[in-house]
Amino acid sequence: MNAPDWPARAAALRPDGRALIDGERRRSAGGAVFAKHSPIDGRLLAEVARGGVADIDAAVAAARAAFEDRRWAGKPPAARKKVLQRFADKILAARDELALLETLDMGKPIQYALAVDVPATARTIAWYAEAVDKIYDEIAPTADTALALIAREPVGVVGVIVPWNYPMIMAAWKLGPALAAGNSVVLKPSEKSPLTAMRLAEIALDAGLPPGVFNVVPGYGHEAGEALALHMDVDAIGFTGSTRTGRRMLEYASRSNLKRVFNELGGKSAFVVFDDFAELERAAKTAAGSMFFNQGESCNAPSRVLVHEAIADRFVEIVAAEAPNYAPADPLQPSTVLGALVDDAQLATVLGYIEAGRGDGARLVCGGRRVREDSGGFYVEPTVFDGVANEMKIAREEIFGPVMSVIRFRDEAEAVAIANASNYGLQASVWSDHLSRAHRVARRLRAGTVHVNSYDEDDITVPFGGVKQSGNGRDKSLHAFDKVTELKTTWLRIDAA
Ligand code: NAD
Questions:
Q1: b/e per residue 280-303 (b: at least 16 CB within 10 A)
Q2: Which residues are CB-neighbours of 246 under 8 A, at least 6 positions away?
Q3: Which residues are catalytic?
């Protein structure tokens, strides 16, 4: 079979930018739209519904009605499982279309949209589907005079607000547990990558999810996003995005109905390489691969690479030699490994940080420039700075682009101190052949996940989330059910005979 001609397929694609509310595609209440251009070459992809208060009201009302009449929550877990398994199967069946939409919408290479984003989305939905009829509730160890049942109940209407870097996966991490537990959902995708969200909701309907259970309202953060997070009839917000917006989510909750807020926020993850680690080349290549994957637009990118001074020169040499393998290219070509940044604003932000790195005295080892400008898209070379101090702006702030900062350290105590000297605490890694050191450092690093002699190896079975200003929630694993369920106690008195 011939490989798909992605440019031809992209040219033929006519994405539908309308919202999906109560089981049907709808224009925004006032008919407002915004133009969604592709970052790969600037082409117009779709006129997208610009959701506002009225659209969010309609979506929340539909979600509430669906929840209250129990058309979904009232189904036995095994029945919900079947529908969600079909949903996952249909996502896989639509793999090419969804991958192409994701690539055009946010600029990632088509090979990764096909191999990572679509399968991970389907697997997430399938995993929560499979889990939901295997979870038991509890009976408390009370005295004989009572029977106390502790049951999990769905919270009700869950608002989901997600970013643009992994649009489908981030949505699926919230949708999987929320839908499996019986909630209704209103999803607000990023205005920078709205298109796959509506298709996911259509596919869910097609799989048998009742109308009103999964609604999608595209639009801007300060309009649709704010309306959703402020809504008095939304019971919980699952948010993934920047720390700045996460702060707002807490404000919205306090200004409205004190809805539960779960924040999955930014990162500045430390990748710590000791001189007792023998496979230096593997460590350096892993750092480059993880840093440049998804154009560096990953919350858990290892953007602070801490290397022992004795091996730092060699480490930087290997990373610099790797960089040309990550040359930006057309995301629609199957061989491309580094695509376009999401938009011109992100391009300006990344170039601004590169300038700041130079200005603060870091040594630019390679990269640093915008390339492929003629394409009409937004491409930046993989960039490596050496001699970075942890106080510099490029080490403190999240860049969200293909920019690695190498920070040298002298000993273990200094490495731990530098790694922990950050407002963020999403992920970290320690590279050492010394068993006790690996465990010792892993314990001391303040992060939601610490990798040992690896990075970004991941599975739906383990929680994902951060400490400090990286957030408070945990996506993935069975723990994600905690965010979308309430514990209900039913106390039954048992009279003596
Ligand atoms: P962002 O905070 O700008 O936007 C995220 C979402 O919030 C979008 O849907 C946006 O429209 C919405 N939003 C923006 N302003 C809003 C407002 N005032 N009210 C309500 N909603 C609003 O973030 P981004 O640029 O889309 O995404 C990048 C960020 O996401 C990075 O910081 C990255 O680290 C983080 N991220 C975290 C994780 C994680 O699991 N911890 C995963 C992926 C991305």
A1: beebbbbbbbbbbbbbbbbbbbbb
A2: 239, 263, 265, 471
A3: 264, 299
Residue type, 205: L
Q: Which residues contact 347 (CB under 8 A, 6 or more apart)?
A: 341, 370, 378, 380
163 within ligand 1 shell (Cβ under 6 A): yes
d(CA 402, CA 297): 7
Q: What is the pTM of this model?
A: 0.98
Q: How far is the CA of 245 from the centre of ligand 1 (A)?
A: 6
226 lines ligand 1 (CB under 6 A): yes
Residue 363: name the closest of 312, 300, 439 by CA. Answer: 312
- 165 Cα: distance to centroid of ligand 1 (angstroms): 9
CA 309 – CA 409 distance, rounded (Å):
6
pLDDT band at 458 (very low <50, low <70, confident <90, very high): confident
* Structure confidence by residue, pLDDT tens digits, 20-79: 999 999 999 999 999 999 999 999 999 999 999 999 999 999 999 999 999 999 999 999
- Cβ atoms of 397 and 268 within 8 Å: the answer is yes
Residue 405, helix vs strand vs coil: strand
First to last CA, the chain: 76
Helix (H/G/I), strand (E/B), else coil: 260: strand
